[in-house]
C-alpha cells in the first residue's frame, strides 16, 4: 500500500531486532532458480539484488510488544522463504501502541524500501490510496495470489477502493462485537454473575461491587491501540463508515447522519462521566500510549478492560493478560467495511519487489509452518504440540508471548491453542456468517475531494472525543454541543454530503 520508512526508523528497527536474512552461496543458488528480480518503474531497480545475490524483502509486522525471540523467529522465517520463495526477509516489528505513527512515517517517506506491510488502517485504506502510497493489487492477485482469492472470496471487496483491491485482510473475526474481560479470581471471590450483562449500562453494578472490594483497581479501559475516541455501540446495527464522521445509525438504511448529535452518543458519554466520577476509569487512559488493558491487568492496575469478542477471544486474552479471565459479551456482532480493512496486509507503492511480496502474502494463506511461526514463535522452543494436537507452552514460551492467530494470514492453517475448542476456526467462520451485515459492506469512502475538511475535522475530534468519551468533561451536554459546533465550522456538513454522494453512487452501481 504505501510508502517508505524513514531512514532513522528503519535503522532503529533493524538494530533493535538484529535483522539479517540468512543467505550464503546455497541461498544465492536457490534464489537464481526460484525468484526473478522484478524492477519497478519508480525506482528503476536501484535497490534490486545484484547479480548472484538473493532478493531481500522488507516486511513489517505488529505485536503487543516486541518479542524477546524476534531474532530466532526471523531466522526461521528466512529458512522458509529461502526454500520456498528464493528470497530472504528483513522483518521489522511495530507495536500496537504506536503503530499509527510508525506506519505514517513508513508510508510518507519515499526513500526507504518496504515491500510488504501488515498495518492498522483505523481510518480505512482510501486515504492512503488517495495519496498514492499503496499499490493496486488486482494484477498481482491474479498472477501470484490465487490462494488468497480462493480463501477470502467476497471479503476482498472490503479492501477495494474505486474498483481496485488495495489490501488483503486476514482470516479472522471479520465482524465487530464488544466485550469486557474480568479477572476471574475477583469474579469468583465476589460471586458476580456476568451472564446478565449484555449492554454497557449492565456493567455499572458490576464495577461498583468490584470497586468497593478493591478500591485501588480500575475497571474501565481499552486494550491495545489507543483509539481517537472510545464510543462503542452495543446494538449490533451501527456502521461507523470508517471514521465516524457521518455514520449509519441503522446499517440497514444508507442514510448518513451525525453520530455526535444522536441520543445514543449522549447517553454513552453521560454513562462514562458517571463511571469516571465513581473512579472506575483508568486515570491515565488518554496519555498512556504504552499500556493497553492486558498489560495493565498483568501489572495489577485494572480488574477489567474492554476488547473485541469473537470465538477464541477468551483464551487469546488470557495469554496476553497473564491470568484467567471471565468475559461479558455485549450486544450483537456486525460486519462492516472498516472492520474488514482495519488490519490488512498491503504492498506499499515503494516496494522494490511487488511480485515477490505478493508471493510472500500468498504463502501466508497456504503454508502452515509460516503461519504457526508468526502466530506462536519457534516450535519446540516457544510452543509445542501436545499429544492431542493442541499448541501449548514450550520451554521458553515467554520469548514469544504475543500468541495470536488473527494477524498472520489464514488462521484456519494455525494450530489451535490449548484451552480452545478443537473446532475453534470453523466456529469463527460460522460466527462471521451469523453476524449482521451492514448494507454498506464493501463501500470505502474516498476523502480526496474533502481533504481539507477531513484534516480540520480530525483536529476537532482529537481535541474533544477522548475527553468527552472517557468521562473527563465537566459538563457532558455542553462539551458535546461545543464539539458539534466546531465540527460543523470545520466542514462536517460538506464532508457528510460527499460521503452520502459516494455511498449513493456505490449502491446504484451494485
Protein described:
It is built from 19 helices and 13 strands. Helices cover about 40% and strands about 10% of the residues. The chain has helices spanning about 5-15, 25-35, 70-85, 100-110, 125-130, 140-145, 145-150, 185-190, 205-215, 265-275, 295-300, 315-320, 335-340, 355-365, 370-375, 425-435, 450-470, 475-490, 490-510; strands at about 55-65, 90-95, 115-120, 160, 165, 170, 175-185, 305-310, 325-335, 345, 385, 390-395, 435. The strands form four sheets. A five-stranded mixed sheet has the order 2-1-3-10-6. Strands 8-7-9-13 form a four-stranded mixed sheet. Strands 4-5 form a two-stranded antiparallel sheet. It is globular. It is α/β, with parallel strands linked by helices. The chain starts with 6 loop residues before the first helix and ends with a helix. Helix 3 (about 70-85) packs antiparallel against helix 15 (about 370-375), helix 6 packs across helix 7 (about 145-150) and helix 17 (about 450-470) packs antiparallel against helix 18 (about 475-490).
By DSSP (H or I, 4+ residues per run), the number of helices equals: 19
Q: How are the strands ordered across the major sheet?
A: 2-1-3-10-6
Question: Any idea what the shape is?
Answer: globular
Kindly report the CATH topology of the largest domain. D-Maltodextrin-Binding Protein, domain 2
**CATH top-level class of the largest domain:** Alpha Beta
CATH architecture of the largest domain: 3-Layer(aba) Sandwich
Amino acid at each position: 500500500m504505501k510508502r517508505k520508512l524513514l531512514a532513522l526508523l528503519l535503522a532503529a528497527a533493524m538494530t533493535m531486532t538484529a535483522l539479517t536474512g540468512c543467505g550464503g552461496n546455497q541461498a544465492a543458488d536457490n534464489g537464481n532458480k526460484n525468484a526473478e528480480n522484478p524492477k519497478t518503474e519508480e525506482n528503476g531497480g536501484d535497490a534490486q539484488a545484484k547479480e548472484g545475490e538473493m532478493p531481500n524483502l522488507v516486511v513489517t509486522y505488529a505485536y503487543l510488544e516486541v518479542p524477546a525471540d524476534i531474532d530466532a523467529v526471523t531466522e526461521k522465517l528466512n529458512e522458509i522463504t529461502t526454500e520456498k520463495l528464493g528470497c530472504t526477509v528483513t522483518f521489522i516489528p511495530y507495536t500496537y501502541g504506536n503503530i499509527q505513527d510508525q506506519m505514517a512515517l513508513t508510508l510518507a517517506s519515499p526513500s526507504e524500501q518496504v515491500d510488504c506491510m501488515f498495518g492498522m488502517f483505523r481510518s480505512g485504506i482510501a486515504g492512503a490510496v488517495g495519496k498514492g502510497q499503496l499499490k493496486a493489487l488486482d494484477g498481482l492477485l491474479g498472477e501470484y495470489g490465487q490462494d488468497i482469492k480462493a480463501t477470502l472470496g467476497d471479503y476482498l471487496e472490503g479492501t477495494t477502493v474505486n474498483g481496485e483491491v488495495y489490501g488483503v485482510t486476514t482470516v479472522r473475526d471479520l465482524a465487530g462485537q464488544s466485550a469486557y474481560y474480568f479477572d476471574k479470581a475477583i469474579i469468583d471471590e465476589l460471586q458476580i454473575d456476568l451472564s446478565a450483562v449484555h449492554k454497557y449500562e449492565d456493567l455499572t453494578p458490576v464495577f461498583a461491587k468490584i470497586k468497593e472490594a478493591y478500591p485501588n483497581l480500575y475497571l474501565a479501559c481499552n486494550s491495545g491501540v489507543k483509539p481517537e475516541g472510545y464510543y462503542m455501540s452495543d446494538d449490533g446495527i451501527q456502521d461507523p463508515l470508517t471514521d465516524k464522521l457521518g455514520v449509519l445509525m441503522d446499517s440497514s438504511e444508507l442514510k448518513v447522519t451525525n453520530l455526535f448529535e444522536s441520543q445514543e452518543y449522549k447517553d454513552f458519554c453521560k454513562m462514562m462521566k458517571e463511571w469516571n466520577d465513581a473512579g472506575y476509569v483508568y486515570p491515565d487512559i488518554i496519555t498512556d500510549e504504552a499500556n493497553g488493558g492486558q498489560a495493565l491487568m498483568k501489572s495489577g492496575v485494572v480488574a477489567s478492560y474492554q476488547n473485541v469478542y469473537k470465538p477464541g477471544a477468551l483464551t487469546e486474552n488470557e495469554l496476553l493478560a497473564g491470568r484467567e479471565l471471565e468475559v461479558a459479551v455485549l450486544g450483537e456482532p456486525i460486519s462492516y467495511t472498516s472492520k474488514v480493512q482495519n488490519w490488512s496486509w498491503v504492498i506499499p507503492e515503494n516496494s522494490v519487489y511487488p511480485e515477490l511480496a505478493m508471493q510472500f502474502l500468498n504463502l501466508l494463506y497456504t503454508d502452515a509452518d509460516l503461519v504457526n511461526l508468526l502466530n506462536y514463535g519457534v516450535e519446540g522452543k516457544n510452543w509445542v504440540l501436545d499429544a492431542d494436537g493442541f499448541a501449548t507452552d514450550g520451554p521458553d514460551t515467554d520469548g514469544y508471548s504475543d500468541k495470536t492467530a488473527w494477524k498472520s494470514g489464514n488462521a484456519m492453517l494455525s494450530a489451535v491453542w490449548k484451552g480452545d475448542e478443537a473446532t475453534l476456526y470453523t466456529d469463527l467462520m460460522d460466527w462471521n456468517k451469523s453476524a449482521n451485515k451492514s448494507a454498506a459492506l464493501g463501500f470505502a469512502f474516498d476523502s480526496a475531494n474533502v481533504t481539507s475538511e477531513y484534516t480540520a475535522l480530525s483536529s476537532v475530534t482529537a481535541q474533544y472525543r477522548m475527553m468527552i468519551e472517557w468521562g473527563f468533561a465537566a459538563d457532558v451536554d455542553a462539551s458535546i454541543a461545543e464539539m458539534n459546533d466546531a465540527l460543523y465550522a470545520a466542514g462536517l456538513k460538506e464532508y457528510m454530503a460527499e460521503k452520502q454522494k459516494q455511498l449513493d453512487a456505490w449502491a446504484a452501481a451494485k
